[in-house]
Recover the amino acids of this structure.
């Protein structure tokens, strides 16, 4: 029996229609969020070129070198994607020691929302001054490393969630080390990277020659005055107005006797929180809810799409010592890194409470570190130097604290020369 073709759906037409719709969607998405893997790689290449780093790519999508016709003093480095399992890899910058005969290996791990490109001001000088090979990595699920699904079971307890997140980073770093057959390393971690590097050193001390914690997050306990706010999202109630009960002479005497008394920091903080205006209290509660739902800053940037670059522009504008070209390159790199698929960035709300206090502070966990440890803080760092100094003094292994002058939390960018000089002393001095 002959069947007329018109009685059957035109599959070719449907496929073309579906393909057309898909292409329209892709075009709209690309317009709204103008990023891609290739654009992110180009921005990485560009920011590193600002630091006179000449890249050759090993087993990556791109194979050409950076081109600097007018420069002949570039630092040569390799960019690799190092597998950590059958599906995932860690983006790795490798700078071989110029003498080629050292057993030392410095491994640099970046902070949250950053990538290995944030050390563009340091690689050249470190490569020329350190008696060490240098590896700089993007944490798995961040930077230009692969972006596996990072699913948090909201039914689990905080303890279970934190353990899951910490194992994700610590074990991926260990697999990376195994893949490159690095026996021992000087492990440097900045901020979030310092937190995870501490836990790695605690679990695998035999693999650590020295630990360098650059303004690590999560060291102190949550101050008593802020626990209701960061744990429950609640502001302290205002004090009821009290009438004066002392005669004026007594009050004056009391003031005179205590004029040089140092105001208790917790009480001062409480008083400030009591007087926060209503609109800011409401905003803080919204932020608290979003944080507890594991929404990341990168999620917000992706939500704003092509306008997300305004956030990165504003962030890098504080690096006033940079040229305009350097600021633009860093902002572009930061935008493309943040705009990639969401992955392990969601760990930030797991391991930290709002205002960057750790759910399980390092102060109570790494007192038994078995490796020499150095803490680095910027002179105007927003991290708690006193907590770091206290932890450093409590360690049973050789430990010290350094303050980098004219620098804040990102001391490797604020004062590259000062940071590089201190790091060179740490790396080059044998134990």
């Amino acid at each position: 029996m002959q069947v007329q073709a018109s009685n059957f759906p035109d599959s070719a037409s449907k496929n073309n229609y579906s393909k057309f719709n898909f292409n329209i969607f892709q075009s709209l998405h690309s317009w709204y969020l103008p990023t891609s893997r290739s654009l992110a790689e180009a921005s990485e290449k560009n920011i590193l070129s600002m630091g006179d780093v000449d890249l050759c790519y090993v087993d990556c999508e791109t194979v050409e070198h950076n081109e600097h016709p007018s420069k002949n003093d570039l630092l040569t480095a390799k960019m690799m994607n190092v597998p950590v399992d059958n599906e995932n890899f860690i983006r790795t910058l490798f700078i071989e020691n110029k003498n080629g005969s050292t057993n030392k290996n410095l491994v640099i791990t970046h902070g949250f929302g950053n990538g290995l490109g944030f050390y563009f001001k340091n690689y050249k000088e470190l490569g020329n001054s350190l008696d060490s090979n240098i590896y700089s990595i993007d944490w798995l699920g961040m930077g230009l490393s692969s972006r596996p699904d990072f699913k948090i079971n909201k039914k689990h307890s905080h303890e279970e969630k934190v353990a899951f997140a910490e194992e994700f980073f610590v074990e991926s770093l260990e697999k990376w080390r195994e893949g490159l057959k690095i026996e021992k390393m000087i492990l440097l971690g900045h901020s979030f990277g310092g937190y995870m590097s501490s836990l790695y050193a605690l679990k695998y001390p035999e693999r650590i020659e020295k630990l360098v914690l650059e303004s690590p997050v999560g060291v102190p306990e949550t101050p008593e005055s802020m626990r209701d706010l960061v744990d429950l999202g609640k502001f302290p109630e205002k004090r009821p107005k009290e009438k004066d009960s002392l005669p004026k002479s007594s009050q004056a005497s009391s003031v005179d006797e205590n004029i040089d008394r140092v105001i208790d920091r917790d009480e001062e903080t409480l008083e400030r929180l009591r007087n926060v205006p209503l609109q800011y209290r409401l905003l803080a509660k919204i932020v608290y809810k979003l944080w507890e739902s594991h929404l990341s800053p990168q999620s917000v940037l992706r939500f704003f799409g092509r306008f997300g670059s305004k956030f990165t522009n504003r962030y890098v504008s504080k690096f006033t010592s940079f040229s305009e070209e350097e600021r633009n390159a860093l902002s572009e790199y930061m935008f493309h890194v943040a705009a990639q698929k969401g992955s392990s960035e969601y760990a930030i709300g797991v391991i930290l409470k709002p205002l960057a206090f750790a759910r399980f502070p390092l102060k109570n966990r790494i007192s038994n570190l078995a490796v020499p440890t150095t803490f680095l803080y910027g002179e105007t760092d927003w991290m708690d130097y006193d907590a770091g100094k206290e932890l450093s003094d409590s360690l049973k292994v050789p430990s010290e604290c350094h303050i980098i002058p004219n620098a804040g939390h990102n001391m490797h960018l604020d004062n590259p020369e000062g940071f590089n000089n201190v790091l060179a002393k740490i790396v080059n001095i044998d134990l």
